[in-house]
């Protein structure tokens, strides 16, 4: 019975042999190594339905028990145990495998859902960032518009006041240079190297009387030559960005010295802003 049950379980393609006699069993087990390999490598996860149907009567036999069979043959008891456990494994496998597939599918679905959620969150974050930028631009544009409107209203008010002003009489032959300077001062400037033309005299007059720091556009270096001669050793000459220029300005402020910034570019160090604005 044990050998017959083994033949049933191992029937290729579910073709259960009709002859399951001891004689037929001995033929099957004749090549011991091959027979043992077929037992070890048996595909226990795929048992044909015909084999399962045919094996039931053997399993239902009370004497189909490894302990009972062992009293007759230890080898047969081992085969008996193999048949019983192979069938039990297959029954458990058939119950667990669908659940395992379901778990795998659920895990895959969860992963896909999490990835989709992450993508949606990233898109929302991007949209919120764009919204914040657009909101900031809108608020700035609104503020700029309001500022322009206020400036326009102030300008209109200034024009209105200007239109109501009484014309102030001015002497036609008035020369501002005669008011701000005299020949002696101009002569001193020329001795210091100032060119004799009227534009140079006008520039020197502006430089010595203006309440703001004058900016000199001096491609021929005539103005800087006059300034250096005029102020002499008290003049502090610096260039923005050079080592120690801020310390030089600080000491000049403390001592009341004149500072000349050479080679000024289009932008000025922001740290000088309050100083240039007389703040």
From TrEMBL:
Q: Known InterPro entries for this protein? A: AAA_9 (IPR035706), DHC (IPR026983), Dynein_HC_stalk (IPR024743), P-loop_NTPase (IPR027417)
| Limits of the Dynein heavy chain coiled coil stalk domain | 1-166
Q: Which UniProt keywords apply?
A: Coiled coil
Q: Which residues form a coiled coil?
A: 103-151
Q: Which domain of life is it from?
A: Eukaryota
According to the entry, every stretch annotated as the Dynein heavy chain ATP-binding dynein motor region domain falls at: 188-278
Q: Does the keyword Coiled coil apply?
A: yes
Q: Name one GO biological process term.
A: microtubule-based movement
Know the name of this protein?
Answer: Dynein axonemal heavy chain 9
**Gene3D superfamilies in the record, alphabetically?**
1.20.920.20, P-loop containing nucleotide triphosphate hydrolases
Q: Which GO terms describe its molecular function?
A: dynein intermediate chain binding; dynein light intermediate chain binding
GO CC term, one of those recorded: dynein complex
**Taxonomy-wise, where does this protein's organism fall, top ranks first?**
Eukaryota, Metazoa, Chordata, Craniata, Vertebrata
Biological source species: Cavia porcellus
């Amino acid at each position: 019975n044990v050998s017959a049950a083994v033949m049933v379980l191992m029937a290729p393609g579910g073709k259960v042999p009709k002859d399951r006699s001891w004689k037929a069993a001995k033929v099957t087990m004749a090549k011991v190594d091959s027979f043992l390999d077929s037992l070890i490598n048996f595909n226990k996860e795929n048992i044909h339905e015909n084999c399962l149907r045919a094996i039931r009567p053997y399993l239902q036999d009370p004497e189909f028990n490894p302990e009972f069979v062992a009293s007759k043959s230890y080898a047969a008891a081992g085969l008996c145990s193999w048949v019983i456990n192979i069938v039990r494994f297959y029954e458990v496998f058939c119950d667990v495998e669908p659940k395992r597939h379901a778990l795998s599918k659920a895990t895959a679905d969860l992963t896909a859902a999490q990835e989709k959620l992450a993508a949606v969150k990233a898109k929302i974050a991007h949209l919120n960032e764009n919204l914040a930028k657009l909101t900031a631009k809108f608020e700035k544009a609104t503020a700029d518009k309001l500022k322009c409107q206020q400036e326009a209203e102030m300008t209109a008010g200034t024009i209105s006041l200007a239109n109501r002003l009484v014309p102030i009489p001015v002497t036609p032959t008035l020369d501002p240079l005669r008011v701000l300077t005299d020949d002696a001062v101009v002569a001193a400037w020329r001795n210091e190297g100032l060119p004799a033309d009227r534009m140079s005299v006008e520039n020197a007059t502006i430089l010595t009387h203006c309440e703001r720091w004058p900016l000199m556009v001096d491609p021929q270096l005539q103005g800087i030559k006059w300034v250096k001669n005029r102020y002499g050793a008290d003049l502090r000459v610096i260039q923005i960005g050079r080592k120690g220029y801020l310390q030089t300005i600080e000491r000049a402020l403390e001592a009341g010295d004149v500072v000349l910034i050479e080679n000024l570019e289009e932008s000025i160090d922001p740290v000088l802003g309050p100083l240039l604005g007389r703040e």
